[in-house]
Design goal:
By secondary structure, this protein is mainly β. It has seven helices and 46 strands.
């Protein structure tokens, strides 16, 4: 016996009762087979095939016999229940077996199928009425022929229960010829979802559309084909499910017509497409080709569709409301506009040539979260053979002064490999409109694709930018907080560690991550000039940024690109230790890693009364910064901190003054770390006494108006008048002081520092 049979394993129980009468000439058989359980295990890892409650009964002879078969077949989680009853025999009793005609009547046929891949529940196929068949043997010049009478088969799906009917006219077959016709009534699109599995669910297409179909085929020396599938009721629904929240968004197509047809005229075959919907536009398509007839070794006509078959067709597409397709865009994005296409198809099946125009008007896209908004878009493209020529693609930024994006290029296949080139021009494009992120960009970017290699080059310049950083980091939920949201979102079990929350993997379970395609390579060299109007504000800093950066890449598409160049500050202030420090030097140097540049920043406290310079200095890298106090001439950290906080040397009272100073800062600063003076928009709020007595006590308010202009007002607590003083620094040594109050004067001060 074959090895596959010898190595297989079988077990179970079966009973066979057989009676044979009449010898070989006119045998009469009475066979009863019962198998409560049988299991067949093929060699290897193939699943075992099992049979349960099998009952087979065969009674009669060659001229008239009856067959009954019932039982259940099992393979893994799949199961099929069969119930069949048939009768038949020879219609020419005197003819030899090789030249006899046979007849068959299928009285009953019912199949119940359960398959997890088709969903839960039972699928059922059942004959509505008996079906007759006849086989006529070849005799002389008369060829063999098979005829099956008309019949009807019903197909029923599980909940929600739907039933479709397949009705066929008499089927006739003989060597080289086939004649069949029939129709399908009530075919639901939901069955395509069950058969296709995840394919349609991932595509986000669903609905309750019901189709009717019909066919009529005559295959032989003459060819006749006619088939169609037409929507009769129901609508199509486009679904998008947010992977993070599980919330589904749905939009109805408003389907009015959907039809697919196929028919021939001799060797010419025509296919037709008709689509009409309120939300997803309209489409009409016609495609014609030609079949080739040839004779096989048996002399019969064979019809084929070779690669040299000519193509002749046209496709017209109109999408008047592209905003309906926003549901397929990334979360938070909205699309709008109208799209139309008029395409002609020529060439051959192996080398099709497509020509025509693609257009779009009033295109708009918006993402509120990302701060992107483009509108008044326009697309003009041409299909020329195997190439797509992009004549114009334009978008305008938000507002009357939003700028413009222009793109031109082409794409196609060369020797089976994709090739494309794209030139993008930005003309003062308002790339971001968020209140905390305003960016206007100009420049040129060129991109090309050659097989698996992508090249990107260009130069971009920032015309205007305002980046506002949050004063405090955004609040986040703790790791022990579980949010129960939409349906199908997994939550953490009570006995599950916090670090293993199923919520983090809920999105991944929807669609398993695919391994990255490392065959795609990218070469990039894009220069970015920050321009003269790039302002950074927030988290205590207010400054302009200047510099030029280069974004470069040379390797797999999944690799992180490199960023090189220097970014420097121009003027500005930095708030630290409750002081508005002037940025003297700011340098951020990128040498490859995008997220870890080198820092060299120095910010000093303005001091109109002394040549002592104090401030803070930040060095190191972004991931490991080193912040130190800076002073020139050099001071100890304690003295530098006193100059930084008070604008003068530390008191001589030593530790007591330090403690009092810390306590005062804690009381006046508050939890937010801001001083009491800053709460009133001032830079200085101090109390003092000239000779240590309470009679000379005074309060001083100060405000720096610019880098070299400072104003202060001093009021004695025991007097009735105050003094207003304005300091104007002309240079490091020369200062003009204006004083108004009890004594008014203008002084020119010269300062000379020495050890």
């Amino acid at each position: 016996m074959p090895t596959a049979v010898v190595d297989a394993r079988a077990q179970g129980q079966a009973d066979l009762a057989l009676t044979w009468r009449g010898g070989w000439a006119l045998p009469t058989v009475d066979a009863q087979l019962k198998a409560p359980t049988l299991t067949w295990q093929p060699p290897g890892d193939a699943q075992a095939l099992g049979v349960r409650q099998l009952q087979l009964a065969l009674q009669g002879g060659l001229d008239q016999a009856t067959l009954s078969l019932s039982g259940q077949a099992l393979q893994g989680e799949r199961s099929a229940q069969l119930d069949l009853h048939a009768q038949g025999g020879r219609s020419t009793p005197q003819a030899p077996l090789a030249h006899a005609n046979w007849r068959l009547q299928l009285n009953r046929l019912a199949i119940d199928l359960r398959d997890p891949q088709l969903g839960a529940g039972r699928w059922r196929a059942q004959l509505a009425q008996p079906v007759n068949g006849e086989w006529r043997a070849a005799q002389g010049r008369q060829t063999a022929a098979l005829t099956v009478a008309s019949g009807e088969l019903s197909l029923t799906s599980p909940e929600p229960a739907r039933t479709a009917r397949v009705l066929w006219d008499p089927v006739r077959w003989q060597p080289g010829q086939l004649s069949t016709a029939g129709r399908i009534v009530g075919l639901p699109m939901a069955w395509a979802e069950a058969v296709a599995g995840d394919a349609m669910r991932q595509a986000g297409v669903s609905g309750d559309v019901v189709f009717n179909g019909q066919w009529n085929a005559q295959l032989g020396q003459q060819l006749k084909l006619e088939a169609s599938l037409t929507r009769t009721q129901g609508d199509l629904t486009v679904i998008r499910k947010d992977a993070a929240t599980g919330i589904e968004s749905r939009i109805a197509a408003g389907l009015r017509e959907a039809r697919l047809g196929l028919r021939n005229d001799g060797e010419r075959v025509n296919a037709q497409l008709r689509w009409d919907s309120a939300q997803l536009g309209t489409a009409t398509g016609d495609l014609a080709t030609r079949l080739a007839a040839s004779r096989g070794a048996d002399g019969q006509t064979q019809w084929t569709l070779p690669d040299t078959a000519p193509l002749d067709g046209q496709l017209k597409l109109q999408l008047p409301r592209v905003n309906a397709w926003s549901i397929l865009a990334p979360p938070g994005w909205r699309l709008h506009g109208s799209v139309n296409a008029d395409v002609k198809i020529a060439g051959t099946l192996g080398a099709p040539l497509v020509t025509g125009n693609l257009g779009a008007d009033d295109l708009a896209m918006r993402s509120v979260v990302d701060g992107l908004e483009f509108g008044r878009g326009r697309l003009r493209a041409r299909l020329a053979g195997q190439k797509l020529l992009l004549d114009e693609f334009s978008l305008r930024g938000a507002g009357d002064q939003g700028g413009r994006l222009l793109a031109t290029g082409e794409a196609g296949l060369v020797d089976g490999a994709p090739q494309a080139s794209l030139a993008i021009q930005l003309q003062r494009l308002r790339a971001s409109i968020r209140a905390d992120r305003q960016v206007t960009v100009s420049g040129q970017v060129d991109a090309s694709l050659n097989g698996k290699l992508t090249r990107v080059t260009g130069q971009l310049g920032v015309d205007h930018a305002l980046i506002l950083l949050p004063e405090d980091s955004a609040p986040t939920l703790g790791s022990d907080v579980v949010v129960r949201g939409a349906k199908d979102i997994a939550t953490r079990r009570r006995d599950e560690p916090l670090g293993n929350s199923n919520m983090a993997t809920a999105a991944a379970s929807e669609s398993p991550a695919k391994p990255a395609n490392t065959d795609l390579q990218v070469q990039a060299d894009v220069k970015l000039n920050l321009g003269d109007d790039f302002r950074l504000r927030g988290m205590g800093i207010d400054t302009k940024l200047k510099g030029e950066l280069t974004l470069a890449a040379n390797g797999p598409l999944t690799a992180m690109p490199r960023l090189t160049g220097d970014v420097r500050t121009e003027g500005g202030t930095f708030k630290a230790y409750n002081q508005n420090l002037t940025i003297q030097r700011g340098l951020i140097r990128f040498s490859g890693a995008i997220d870890n540049p080198t820092l060299d920043i120095r910010a000093l406290r303005p001091n109109y009364a002394s040549e002592q310079r104090v401030g803070v200095q930040v060095q190191g890298t972004a991931l490991l910064p080193v912040v130190t106090l800076y002073s020139n001439p050099s001071l100890s950290d304690t003295e530098a901190l006193a100059w930084l906080l008070l604008g003068r040397a530390a008191p001589d009272t030593g530790a007591e003054a330090a403690m009092l100073q810390s306590a005062a800062m804690a009381v006046l600063g508050g939890k937010s770390g801001t001083s009491l003076a800053s709460r009133f928009g001032l830079d200085e709020l101090s109390f003092g006494s000239g000779n240590g007595s309470t009679s000379d006590a005074s309060v001083t308010l100060g405000k720096r108006l610019s880098d070299n202009l400072y104003a202060s007002y001093e009021r004695s607590l025991s007097g009735v008048t105050g003094t207003l003083m304005i300091y104007l620094e002309l240079s490091r040594r020369w200062t003009v002081r204006g004083q108004a109050g009890e004594d008014s004067a203008i002084d020119l001060l010269f300062r000379l520092s020495y050890d």
